Amino acid sequence: MVLLQLDPFLNELTSMFEQSTEKGTVWVTLKRSSLKSKVQRNKMATAGEPVEYRCLIRATNGKKTISTSVGAKDHQRFQASYTTILKAHMTALKKRERKDKKKAAGADKKEGSKKP
Amino acid sequence: MVYITSWDEFVERSAQLFRADPDSTRYVMKYRHCDGKLVLKVTDDKECLKFKTDQAQDAKKMEKLNNIFFTLMSRGPDADVSEVTGKEQTEAQSGKKGRGRKQ
Which residue ranges traverse the bilayer (chain B) (predicted)? Predict the structure, then answer.
């Protein structure tokens, strides 16, 4: 598993999406972690130091896994880039379908559908 | 495997799950371009919530959910998540306080 810095991670993630266009899946996992072992964490807690938590992000295409860890200060920047990447690649999803999509039960904008 | 049909319920329950156990809760997203499907899963290894869709509008909602999770995870489960731009206001809240391990 490759641990990368933020920007290389974003680049790799982009290329993963591009590679799995015809076939394949992209998984992205988000988890909070302090990246330290339990012992260290307990020590820090008893010493009164605040334990610093980071967000661990992992991405895989089934063959290769990459990961990165984002702290509170980088999280907004990462979030913006991440959102852009997702928006750019998730183009295969259907645009507002006709009413027979029961899944869209949550969507209330349905009736505005432009089917004549 | 519980598939939730309502987006709002999914968000609500995921946030609850995370707040209850921030150290073991994780959020997984799976996207298949060739099938045009997106599946989201939130689990704390005891309970599991899933949501699947093939709608572009749900992708937009998912982006908001991503923001929520990012905020909760990097700032701590007590961070104020107002679901939209209210998140940026959490910057006013001091960074390190409240980020200790839950007693």
Answer: none
Contact A32 B25 (CB under 8 A): yes
Q: Find out whether B58 and B81 touch, Cβ atoms under 8 Å.
A: no
Cβ(A49)–Cβ(A28) under 8 Å?
no
CB B58 within 8 A of CB B1: no
Distance CA(A36)–CA(A18), nearest Å, equals 34
- Residue A20 CA to residue A63 CA, distance in Å, equals 11
CB contact under 8 A, B100 and A96: no
R_g over Cα of chain B: 14
């997106």: which residue's tokens?
A: B38
The answer, for B67 touching chain A at a CB cutoff of 8 Å, is: yes
**If DSSP codes are grouped into helix, strand and coil, which group holds residue A86?**
helix
Question: How large is the ipTM?
Answer: 0.75
Determine, for residues A105 and B6 on separate chains, whether the beta-carbon distance falls below 8 Å.
yes
Q: Is A103 close to B55, i.e. CB distance below 8 A?
A: yes
Closest-CA residue of A relative to B76 is A53
CA A75 to CA B72: how far, in whole Å?
11
Q: Report yes or no: A108 at the B interface, CB cutoff 8 Å.
A: no
